[in-house]
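step: validate -> pass
step: tokenize input -> pass
step: predict -> running
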Amino acid sequence: MYLSDTIQVVEFLDKSASNSLVTAVYKSRGGTLVKLYGSLEISGFFFHLKEKIIIPVKNLSAFPKEPLSRLEEGLRSNFFGKITAFSVMKGYGKVVKVETENLDLIIPLFSGKSVVVQDKSGKEIWRDKKDNGLNLLEKPMKDFPLTFENPLFWESWFVEKSDKERDEEKKRKLEEKRNKILSAINIVKEDIKKHEENLAKFSEFAAFLKANLWKFDSSEHKNSVIIADYENNEKEITLDPAKTLLQNMERFFQNIKKAKNGIENSGKRLETLSEELERLALSDELPAEPKSVLKQPKKQNAHVPYHEFHAKNGRVFLVGKEEKDNDELTFKVALPHDLWFHAKDYHGSHVIMRMKKGEEPKQQDILTACALAILYSKAKKGRCGEVWFTARKNVTKHKGMAAGLVNFKNAKVIYMKDAAMPDGLVKV
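step: predict -> pass
step: emit ->
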């Protein structure tokens, strides 16, 4: 994507997506998708730092969710609100600025520089990696003609390109897997051949030595013995001089047993590899890799213990789904400076209101969280009741306490009457 393409797309985003609300951020196709609410033309925008592109997105189904990286996790926590403008910081190159009412998101579409969230004064709120910041260009970037006249064409172009690369990568991995299996089959066949040779050799040695042991002192130590075979031809059998003749004979029988076990185990292994090779030929999908018992990968569709809501002003609220989810939300997801809410004297969900460190909560946001606490509790039938709230750091749990039960201190109480879902609150 040339600078001219970037400018064209960003101008389209500014026209079509300004005044829309950021409702979600997730990883997809190796890049980052920002889902929007309120735009009639698009559903979000997507940027990919390695591909150096930013594109408008209409079809969200073409961008499946992938496990989050540090970038998406950071943006989820630090970038929110209603978008007011998109622009290109041309003096720094292909750098896109996405503005909300209170925050700016800076996206450098080239390698080595951080995605940054800053406030309106330019104070940095968050960045995804360490670097020395942006530098003004010494020379302006070259101007090239537009790739597409319609900026919406970028979506289908990228999806097609991404699918093609994915298919090629899958074919490459399938071929690698096939070659790996074939190599393993050849090694196993060589092992079987060696075991068969050892079985024949040590069976002959053991039989001859056992048949002629009476001719010798079985407690002797020898380097070798000369024994006549079945056709009366003399055969020399090499021995281990550190062992007696009897111990050497026992060693031969142990080697026979070892060779038989080796043939049996290698045969089973060969059968498994052959079946795996056959399955691979019949399918275009890679077989699942065995999971390590030391480090389990994160599940793509892992259970999320909360419902997520976004207010018009970008405030994020998390509502526990079940009693055990309340514990996970409060003690694993929430940060110490977030606010915690719960309907007093009723069973119900823990509600977390995301806060910045040192931030003072707004009364309207507190009332929104209280309404959620009532509506997601046994008090929802009457739509009224008292709600406790305090900083998450004031909430504790002792060993042995039932799921969802906690201790807390320094809590305030608000009485809610006729609690209802606030206008503009969007469930993500």
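step: describe -> The chain is about 35% helix and 25% strand.
step: cleanup -> pass
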